[in-house]
Write a structure and sequence with these properties.
The structure holds two protein chains of two kinds. Chain A has a six-stranded parallel beta sheet, with helices on both faces. Chain A is α/β, with parallel strands linked by helices. Chain A has two domains: 299 residues, Thiamin diphosphate (ThDP)-binding fold, Pyr/PP domains (Rossmann fold, 3-Layer(aba) Sandwich), CATH 3.40.50; 32 residues, no CATH class. The mean pLDDT of chain A is 95. In chain A, helix 1 packs antiparallel against helix 10. Chain A contains 13 helices and eight strands. Helices cover 45% and strands 9% of the residues of chain A. Chain A is globular. Chain B folds into two domains: 189 residues, Thiamin diphosphate (ThDP)-binding fold, Pyr/PP domains (Rossmann fold), CATH 3.40.50.970; 128 residues, 3-Layer(aba) Sandwich (Rossmann fold). Chain B has a seven-stranded mixed beta sheet, with helices on both faces. A five-stranded mixed beta sheet of chain B has the order 10-12-11-14-15, with helices on both faces. In chain B, strand 14, helix 10 and strand 15 form a beta-alpha-beta unit. The radius of gyration of chain B is 20 Å and the shape is globular. The chains are: A alpha/beta, B alpha/beta.
Chain lengths: 360, 332
Amino acid sequence: MEKQFPIQTWLDGNGNITADDYENSLTEELAKRFYRHMVRIRTFDQKGISLQRQGRIGTYAPFEGQEACQVGSALALEENDWMFPSYRDHGATMTFGHTLLNILLFWNGRNEGCVPPKGKNIFPPGIPIATQLPHAVGAAFAEKKKGTKNAAIVYFGDGATSEGDFHEGLNMASVFDAPVVFFNQNNHYAISVPMDKQMKTKTIAQKALAYDIPGVRIDGNDVFAVYFETLKALEKARNGEGPTLIEAVTWRYGAHTTADDPAKYRNQEESEIRRTQTDPLTRLERFLKNKGWFNETEAVNWQEEASKEVDAAVEEMEQFPAADPADIFNYVFAEPTWILHAQKEQFLQVKKGDPSWNQQ
Amino acid sequence: MESTVANKQKLTIVQAVTDGMRTKLTEDERVLVFGEDVGKNGGVFRATDKLQEEFGEARVMDTPLSEAGFVGAAIGMAVNGLIPVVEIQFLGFIYPAYEQIMTHASRLRARTMGHYTVPLVIRAPYGAGVRAPEIHSDSTEAIFTHMPGLKVVCPSSPYDAKGLLIAAIEDPDPVLFLEPMKCYRSSREEVPTGKYVVPIGEANKLQDGEDVTVICWGAMVPVAMKAVKEMDKKGVSCDVIDLRTLYPIDKDAIAESVQKTGRTVIVHEAHGTGGVGNDVLAIINDTSFLYQKAPVERVTGFDAPVPFFGFEDDYLPTAERVMHAIEKVIKF
């Protein structure tokens, strides 16, 4: 099956193009756009870890190493498409247009983090594994029913393919020809469990065969392969040709979340080797250098811009008004039930120190 | 066949459910009906009978056998402008979809501070007493009323079935619509043609009485009524409340009645522990403690799995058990 589903790479570790047919599509402008976005999301991610270490946000799920997957796929989307991320995909959501402030608020325990900017179809992160796949199918189905050309993309990891919702989602999408792209980031570990303990299959792309939909296996650290294959899958979806499963083979350098230590379940030397050999950003930088397009001053400026933008968002997050405790009750239903009303009133009275709360 | 008399027709509960869906399918393009076997077959209980013929396969759809999948997809559709009405064939088969309902349908509004909402109706026949195979007879409404963000309704008559279903479809939040399958075809009553609404959250006083309040819903309504009629012959008059909505419960209807009678019997088919009856009891405690002349009696299913149909009649609360409970609160 690995032969049937080879990993497609356009850009090798040394930054050389291996797929000659596409050389003309890889413009300087596009390459630099990818590079800037990847610098931006990596800067955010590193800040996220450091904020958690300093106790300035809660538990944080880093994505470092997966930047090509998230930038390449998100930039392939059109304005009115739908994005269904998991908790490790805020690199994709910020590339698609989510605000850094709201993403930080999410990691700092605030519901505002689940609210996308106006006009952006970004679902809150799927927390229970794979449950977001059927949602994406439904939203995509609704677009088809409305007669639009909009599509949906849904992100999930290797472990998610063991869940029922993965299979139910793919099957429903296949039966309904829903315009959805299933974007799997295979980073080889579901928290601590390696892929060979997760599944007998050597590839995830082959699971598409069971649903008679295309399965595509790409080098997830090659932003060109990610971008163009996602674009192709989205095009098929828009043209009424149904869903595609993309397996982007990648690696997370760090922990599952800041609450675990990866050294406990895997040899972290491998992360270091991968960082020097297959890192998505370094690879793109090598490509830019090979092409003679890399400009040191420009790169330094982009890094500074990213750091400034992230720092500004952190400051905004830290100055964000405290949560209104009444909001616990305000959004359960369109109209709060009498029970919620009563609980809210009593809670607010107690909180205010109003002695009348227990005299009714 | 239904007879139509002056904008009314005599319908069974299951026909009234169909008529409710037909009314909304006709009126609102956004409404979709789907689930297992609801298309060509018209549903295993024929609740969607002929709807696919009338509205086409694009609006009344058969889905794969995939409760989590199609409820999950319904959430995505609801968020994206459609109003799905999905059928779970039997409540006992809803559990694969429980995560989608608990984690997503019911809390998406809260998670996103009202940005994304889920106007979704999940219909499910429930309850024992029709000699169905095992697992087909559950009455587990309480695991859904416990879930914040979900409304749970349970009609006991054709009129209420149609009116509540229309209210559920028009509700901006997800609603679990429980249909007492034992009563699906047990009686007919006049149901208005076209649209009307029975508001969610309002109980129905089935009978006025002075001595004891009997609170019930769904398939227990005829059981309770049988007991109440027998007690009437013995000179005990009962106030009978059909709760109709199990979340949010009609607190005022309960308080008004139990403050008058001071004696209450709660009847439900579900297991006693953690049952909705306990929430009714809490309401009596909170609103009417000093009016009580006797401890509240509960007549419920046992804390045992619903048995095979060979002895399901022994599991189900009976009029006799209800009568005993009424006598007990009277004699206290």
